[in-house]
Design a protein that fits this description.
The protein is mainly alpha-helical. The protein has eleven helices and no strands. The C terminus is likely disordered.
Length: about 220
């Protein structure tokens, strides 16, 4: 096995072990020492690949975002881009609604500028891919402004869930989806259809199983 392959495998292991620790202990409660001991490596080895715990958390978010999007795409039709977005948000909010630790991790990730800085270009590209047909004249600034504004809205809704408790999913999930789709100039008929379909799909999915296999962090 080459050195590059070993390094990639070790990074993947550190990210996976860290994700498990964050999910079971919490981000703030997990220490670098716990990560090092769990992976059975030395301090210097971890710091060769990561700057600090937030850097590890950022890699966890990026890795899990990729898994999450693949999952969403697998349960929606490829050509139904409006439903893909609606389902992304509905799954995210449902997991936040049903799991206190997931909600806390989302709040932590949404409050991290390092995570936002890493995900924003990816989110912008995703939004451009989904909504270009409705916005052929949009510039990079148009996508960036909307991506950041929507991220801020979701951050506040998730903080409300963390500090006020569950029970508002059926109120603010459709609202958040509609707000985003309006900003991307999706026709009202398409918005209503996608929201209704996404909420139906959510009711059919085992959210606990999704969390177990995807352990999703913030998306687009």
């Amino acid at each position: 096995m080459g050195r590059e392959k070993r390094s990639k495998d070790l990074v993947k292991t550190i990210v996976g072990v860290s994700r498990d620790l964050f999910l079971h202990k919490g981000y703030r409660e997990t220490t670098i020492r716990q990560i090092i001991d769990s992976v059975c490596i030395k301090n210097g080895t971890l710091y060769h690949f990561f700057k600090d715990k937030e850097d590890i958390f950022c890699h966890v978010c990026l890795t899990t975002y990729d898994e999450y999007i693949r999952y969403v795409d697998s349960v929606t039709e490829d050509e139904d881009v409006v439903l893909q977005y609606a389902m992304t948000r509905a799954l995210e909010f449902k997991m936040v609604e049903e799991n206190d630790m997931i909600a806390r991790l989302y709040e932590e990730a949404y409050s991290s500028w390092r995570v936002a800085e890493a995900l924003t270009p990816i989110n912008m590209a995703r939004n451009r891919q989904l909504f270009h047909q409705f916005n052929p004249a949009f510039t990079d600034d148009d996508y960036r402004n909307r991506t950041l504004a929507l991220r801020g809205m979701r951050a506040l809704l998730i903080s409300d869930r963390v500090h006020s408790g569950p029970g508002r999913f059926r109120s603010w999930c459709p609202f958040a989806i509609e707000t985003a789709l309006v900003l991307f100039n999706v026709p009202k008929k398409e918005i209503d259809r996608a929201i209704a379909k996404a909420m139906d799909l959510i009711a059919e999915h085992d959210i606990a199983a999704v969390m177990t296999h995807q352990e999703a962090y913030p998306g687009a």
